[in-house]
Amino acid sequence: MSQWLSDLASSHRLQLGLTALVSGGLAITAVIGLQNARRWYDVHDLKDSIPDLDSKHDVEKINNFGGAAISDTTEQKDDERSVALARRARLGDYDEDLILEQLARNRVFLTDDGLRKLRNAFVIIVGCGGVGSHAAAALARSGCGRIRLIDFDQVTLSSLNRHAVATLSDVGTPKVTTLQRRLEQIVPWVHFDCRNQLFNAASANSQLEGWTDGQAPTYVIDAIDNIDSKVALLKYCHDNSLPVISSMGAGCKSDPTRVLIGDISASTDDPLSRATRRKLRQGGVKEGIPVVYSTEKTAPGKAELIPLPEEQFQKGLVNELGVLPDFRVRILPVLGTMPAVFGLCVANHVMLEITGYPHEYVTGKVRDKMYDGILAQLQGLEERLAKADGAGKQGVRMRVTSDDVGYLVEEVFRGRSVISGLASRLALARWRKPEDKWIDDRTPGQRLDELPLDALVCMTKDEMLEHEKLVLRGDRRPEDVYDQAVLDRVEARWQEERDMKTRWQH
Hints:
Layout: H1 2-9, H2 12-49, H3 74-90, H4 96-102, H5 104-119, E1 122-126, H6 130-142, E2 146-150, H7 175-184, E3 191-195, H8 204-207, E4 219-222, H9 227-239, E5 244-247, E6 259-263, H10 271-282, E7 290-294, H11 310-315, H12 337-355, H13 368-388, E8 397-398, H14 402-412, E9 426-430, E10 439-440, E11 448-449, E12 456-460, H15 461-472, H16 478-481, H17 484-505
Parallel strand pairs: 1-2, 1-4, 2-3, 4-5, 5-7, 8-11
Antiparallel strand pairs: 6-7, 9-12, 10-11
Helix pairs in contact: 6-12, 9-10, 13-14
């Protein structure tokens, strides 16, 4: 044994090996110690850089745009680095492994195929305020490869309660530019196309055109709060078979549990949705457009649209107070969280649609059965009138559909009786007794009821039965039965409908 140990001790190779092992251990120890020391110093430097609460600081410097002034060039250098990084990433100088790591959670959820579809998608977002900015941020963070941003407006101080990424230093800059600059710092490989423009029917062809390589839009997001522009966008997408989802009004809303996604024909409780539906219907679009909307209703104590002060009206030229002609000049109360909820719902829908992920939304309010019931009541009423008019016992057919019933009840008459204002047990009935020959029996074995929609009014079932007895089967006119307020209400409802139809045709 002693001889063996003596041989080992005299081995040159063993001595070198031991020396190397000890040296390596010392080197590792030194490196770890250096790293720990550097980490300790970095942490303390960071702590030292945070001012105490009683330290002097200047937060009152405001630049000409209303944004916070930059006291040094640190933020500017950060922005410059972000822009340079984004430029290199778009040219391909970005590690694909890093991108996939950043999108890892989406990748395991949507699968590789779904994520590939999303990264190859081209989404256009029209309107980059509270709703549009959150939709854009969510899509960009999730890996959507190409995003076109369209908005004519600039960031204002009042935008900051709901905008997804804008800061004080962005006040006065175009919303589209702000979104691109901020999102490039998060996802520098995403390609943005910014259009600081107002959307309208005349510019639709150029603004909704394909990408520079000819790729057609995969999806369009409507986050516009002006009805005319909104209708123009939705009509264009419908006529050109462009997939689109529209955000309805988030203003004056406060209950996120009532935010739903459904067809535009189902969004009956939202004023913006109602106006949009009515205008689209005049253009021949009744359904087929998914929307995000709220079923929340107004109630005492809840926020309402704030009118302009009376002194503003006394000055005249109220329209000059708006940014653009025909855009609202009244103050719309908005809880900052609600546009975010709407925008995230929109982005979520677009991602599921693009990737083919299975989704089925719960219908907020199923009123089809109610409309079918009202249609059946109207059918029965018309058959009783035909029988009383000597047309025999054979039934009659009507051109009125359940969809027509829903439109009349919800859009024209606001879901309430025109007589009492009640909203339960509703029915439709002729306003005046039919005159002349109102049954078309020229086709053998078929009797067609020539019932125009503008001959109908909404009332409760009990009011309908009384109206039938006194007016439709009696000898009295509506003017003999109802007061002037009811008569004016009926005329106002149908005059509004005629005016809307006229505006659309022009």
